[in-house]
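User: Please predict the structure of the protein below. I'd like the answer in structure-token form so I can feed it into my own downstream comparison script.

Assistant: Understood. Taking the following sequence of 191 residues as input:
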Amino acid sequence: MWIQSAVEWFKDPANSLAFAQLVAVFVTALATIALWRVTKVLAVETKTLAAMTSRPFVVSSFESSGADPTAINLTLRNTGNATAFDVRFCITPAPPKANGQPADNPEHSTFEISLLPSGQVLPLQGVMGRYVSDASFDVRVSWAALPNGKDREELSYKTAPKDGFHGGFNTKNVHHVAGELEKLRKQLPKQ
């Protein structure tokens, strides 16, 4: 009997319209709640991503040197997007001096840098590749995001000079540039 009265109720166009509006309100409310939740999650992720990308991140590696085809530089690099302050760096064992003599303290070498701007590379020590070609080093580097900051980030890992050594000069000499210009001049059509 209630079904028949419901059918009668829906036959009135004003009642059908009211029911359709009620259903639309509930669907809109559910969509609004879902949209609010997704927006909240995206806002939290965006805030986290912004915090992560606006921090310094300091690493050290051995890189080929432009000074000599067999030389390697121990470098410190800030790959983050902010300046690193109070950088402390320790490498164990200490790499030998550039002339091959053992370091003053062969157990480890430490360096302290007051600040390292974003994208900056700081060569710390040169060494000839033949003295460290098969060596492996433990690296520990720490830094703060603010001067005299109490919160410090630290990174520890193993590295080997062979990972960054490419051998040979990494810059072109004047005679190489002149040769390249001569090739280009020959390739250009004569006018």
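That's the full token string. The longest strand covers residues 84-92.
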